[in-house]
Amino acid sequence: MTPDPITKLMLDILRMPPAASAHAADVDQLMVLVHWLMAILFTGWSIFFVYVLVRFRRGAHPVADPRGVRGRWSTFVEGGVLVAEVILLAFFSIPAWSSRVDAFPSAQQSTVVRVVAEQFAWNVHYPGADGAFGRTDVTFLSATNPLGLDRSDPAARDDVTTINRLNLPMGRPVIVYLSTKDMVHSFTLPQMRVKQDAVPGTVQPVWFTPTRTGEWEIACSQLCGLGHYRMRGFYSVQTREDFASWLAAETAALAPR
User: Fold this and answer.
1) Residue ranges in the chain whose pLDDT is less than 70
2) What pLDDT, on the 0 to 100 scale, is given for residue 181?
3) Contacts of 251 by beta carbon, 8 Å cutoff, 6+ apart
4) Phi first, then psi: what are they for 166, rounded to 5°?
5) Which of 3.30.70.240, 3.40.50.1970, 2.30.42.10, 2.60.40.420 is the CATH number of 107-252?
6) What is the chain's Cα-based Rg?
7) Element (H, E) at 231
C-alpha cells in the first residue's frame, strides 16, 4: 500500500523508519492522523496564548476579572477535540486492532519462533524441521544454555537457538511468542511497526508479515536496568530460499561430529 502524497510528506517530517511489514501502512496512517490533530491543537492553543497575552495585558485590564472567560466557544472547541478523538478511536484505531486480532494466522502457515528476553539480551528459539519446540526447564539454565533447553528431548534435537539474532523469511507471516526471564522488557522492531512488552509470567503472541528484505536492530524500549543501553540485537529479513538455507545450515551444525 503506497501512502498518498500528504501522508508521505508527514511521514518524511516525522522521520519514520522504512515500512517493511504488511500492516505498517495502517499504523503509519494512524500516526499521521494523530500528529495532524496534535499539530492543529498546538497551532490553535499557541495563537490563543498570544491573543490572551495581548488582549488581557495589565495595561488594558489593570483589575483582574474573577469571572474568567465567558462565552461558549471554548466548549465548542473542547467538544470538537473530543469528537476528533472518538473518530480516531472508533473508525481507525479499534478497526485496525480488531482486524489484526481476527486475522491471526495459523501456525502451519507461519514461521513460529520464541523470543525470551532477559537482562540484557534477546534469546531466540526456532522449533526446527519437526515444527515442535523442545522441552525447557530452569534446571538446564546455564551461560551456554540461556533458554534451559533439554537436548535429550527428541523434539529439541533439531531446535535452533541464537542470541541477539533473529532471522525471518519475507512474504510469510511470522508469529513471535514473547516472554521474559526476569523483568519487563519491550520487544521493538521499528521497521515492522511492532512494539510489545514482555511481561514476567506471561507469553504474549505477536504477529506480522515482512514485505521487504533487510537487516535492522531489535530495540528494548523499556528501561530495564543499568545495562539497558546495550540490550540490542539484530534481525534480518531474507528471501524464503535464503532463510531455508540459513536454517538448514544452523540445524546441520547441531549434528554431532
Assistant:
1) 1-14, 68-69, 255-257
2) 94
3) 128, 129, 158, 160
4) -125, 120
5) 2.60.40.420
6) 25
7) none
Query: Whose CA is closest to 84, among 39, 10, 33, 47?
Result: 33
CB contact at 8 A, 206 and 175: yes
Question: What is d(CA 8, CA 111) in angstroms, rounded to the nearest whole number?
Answer: 31
What are 187-240's pLDDT values in tens digits?
Answer: 999 999 999 999 999 999 999 999 999 999 999 999 999 999 999 999 999 999
For the chain, the domains span 5-102, 107-252
Residue 95 to residue 19: CA distance in whole angstroms: 20
Q: Which three cell numbers stand for residue 65?
A: 476579572
Strands 232-238 vs 165-169: parallel, antiparallel or unpaired: parallel
